[in-house]
């Protein structure tokens, strides 16, 4: 018992002595900032993967690339494993928009566009044309979209074009042509939409149901299909055993003192010493980094990791707020997981704060105008207030919008969602929203939140949310 405690004290003292006063403040308030600081200046190579992700999340692609270059020959294997888990991260130092003013291309004729792109590298040309194709499609400028495709089809992804073409025919009510185009794709997106269209066209959907059931890729489209079919098969989820190392318990103790940064060192030691290290995740106040490490684990099966990838943190506060404001607690966890991955000190590029990623302006409106409370910015770092405000806001959105649109409004803003819906009154299903809403971040956000919600209901065996 004495040795692990001394190790913890040593790590604690070492961390405090190594930091300047500024670094100590960063360590106290922000896990992400601590990882970046330690990776750059503290010589802690094992922090590089998380720091790399933090920089990319903030849009600091050049800094992330510099950090990646500095990691050559150090922890490269861990970095690659980590980035394989974070599939959405782009390795490009600059997107086309940073080097080219993409808006200047929007209204060029195909011949003028060809002249402008003539001397550009192939990857830049493909990026610009893909951007234009997406822009024309999602802003419903279909004549411009088809004109672009006719002239530059070889430079645009075949899979993307087929997807857009199928959705275009669906949007215009030509379901047979949409179904015909989908036959040229073999992925869950294609199987799900063929499953939907087959029922409209009077075709047996059994083939596509079987394809989705058998698909090994557990993406949004398979989850949406299982949701619609009411399939919540628990099976054998989780693994038996719990961490025995005293260091694993010290991770929880460090976080209970608000020292999330220090807990990273202890978690690293816990992971090395105990094969059931991930058993500590449900007990942590800030399981964000531990969940990232578990994602990168290639030994455990996904079903075994599932209960630890989707923990119910601050369950007492969540249940109380859910009951008070009439929101399913599984939906709260699903939103919280996507917003911050349970990092209570999370700060986004748009300056949204805390577990539920609330903007200070929204927090002030909620606290002062709706709840009659005093407001100060740091309140949003306290889980009690972040959850309270976030759940109230979800409840407020759900009063006038169905669940999937309330989730979209939480991310994109209710005014933007309502404006788009007023112009697209034909949209009535989540599958239509995530394919046609113009803002890519919100489309992805809704897909991930509802995937999270499926897994939380799977784990709680509560499909109805009651």
Strand elements, count:
0
Shape: globular
Backbone CA Rg? 24 Å
Low-confidence stretches: 4-29, 74-99
DSSP helix count? 27
Largest sheet, in brief, is: none
Q: Give the end-to-end Cα distance, rounded to a whole number of Å.
A: 45 Å
Helix percentage: 55-70%
- The share of residues in extended strands comes to under 5%
Order of SSEs: HHHHHHHHHHHHHHHHHHHHHHHHHHH
User: Which class of the domain at 315-460 in CATH terms?
Assistant: Mainly Alpha
| Overall pLDDT score | 80
Kindly identify the CATH topology of the domain at 315-460: Lysozyme
Oligomeric grouping of the chains? single chain
Q: What's the architecture of the domain at 315-460, going by CATH?
A: Orthogonal Bundle
Structural class of the helix and strand makeup? Answer: mainly alpha
Describe it.
By secondary structure, the chain is mainly alpha-helical. Among the domains are: 2-85, no CATH class; 95-156, no CATH class; 315-460, Orthogonal Bundle (Lysozyme). 65% of the residues lie in helices and 0% in strands. The protein contains 27 helices and no strands. It has helices at 2-18, 21-29, 31-42, 48-57, 61-70, 76-85, 96-99, 110-117, 122-138, 142-152, 158-171, 175-182, 188-201, 206-214, 220-229, 246-256, 260-273, 288-296, 302-309, 315-325, 329-340, 360-370, 383-398, 403-412, 414-423, 430-436, 440-460. The radius of gyration is 24 Å and the shape is globular. The model is unreliable at 4-29 and 74-99 (pLDDT under 50).
């Amino acid at each position: 018992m004495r040795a692990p405690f001394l190790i913890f004290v040593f790590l604690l003292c070492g961390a405090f002595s190594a930091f300047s006063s500024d670094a100590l403040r960063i360590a106290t308030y922000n896990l992400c900032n601590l990882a970046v600081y330690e990776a750059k200046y503290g010589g802690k190579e094992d922090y590089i993967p998380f720091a790399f992700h933090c920089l990319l999340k903030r849009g600091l692609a050049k800094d992330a690339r510099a950090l990646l270059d500095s990691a050559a020959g150090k922890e490269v294997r861990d970095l690659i494993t980590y980035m394989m888990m974070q599939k959405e991260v782009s390795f490009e130092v600059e997107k086309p928009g940073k080097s080219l003013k993409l808006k200047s291309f929007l209204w060029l004729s195909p011949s003028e566009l060809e002249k402008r792109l003539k001397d550009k590298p192939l990857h830049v040309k493909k990026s610009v044309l893909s951007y234009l194709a997406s822009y024309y499609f999602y802003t419903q400028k279909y004549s411009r979209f088809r004109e672009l495709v006719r002239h530059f089809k070889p430079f645009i992804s075949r899979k993307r074009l087929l997807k857009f073409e199928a959705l275009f025919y669906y949007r215009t009510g030509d379901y047979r042509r949409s179904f015909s185009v989908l036959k040229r794709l073999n992925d869950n997106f294609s199987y799900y939409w063929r499953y939907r269209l087959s029922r409209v066209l009077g075709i047996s959907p059994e083939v596509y149901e079987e394809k989705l059931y058998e698909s090994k890729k557990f993406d949004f489209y398979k989850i949406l299909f299982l949701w619609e079919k009411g399939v919540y098969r628990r099976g054998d989820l989780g693994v038996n055993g719990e961490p025995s190392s005293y260091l694993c318990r010290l991770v929880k103790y460090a976080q209970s003192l608000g020292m999330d940064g220090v807990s990273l060192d202890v978690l690293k030691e816990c992971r090395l010493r105990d094969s059931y290290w991930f058993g500590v995740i449900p007990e942590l106040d800030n399981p964000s980094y531990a969940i990232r490490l578990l994602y990168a684990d290639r030994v455990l099966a996904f079903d075994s990791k599932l209960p630890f990838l989707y923990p119910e943190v601050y369950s007492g506060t969540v249940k109380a707020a859910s009951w008070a404001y009439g929101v399913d607690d599984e939906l709260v966890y699903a939103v919280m997981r996507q917003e911050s991955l349970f990092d209570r000190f999370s700060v986004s590029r748009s300056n949204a704060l805390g577990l539920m990623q609330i903007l200070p302006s929204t927090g002030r409106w909620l606290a002062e105008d709706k709840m009659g409370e005093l407001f100060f910015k740091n309140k949003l770092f306290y889980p009690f207030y972040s959850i309270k405000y976030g759940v109230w806001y979800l409840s407020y959105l759900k009063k006038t919008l169905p669940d999937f649109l309330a989730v979209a409004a939480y991310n994109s803003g209710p005014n933007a969602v309502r404006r788009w819906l007023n112009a697209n009154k034909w949209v009535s299903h989540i599958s239509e929203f995530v394919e046609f809403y113009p803002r890519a971040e919100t489309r992805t956000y809704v897909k991930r939140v509802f995937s999270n919600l499926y897994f939380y209901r799977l784990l709680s065996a509560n499909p109805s949310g009651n």
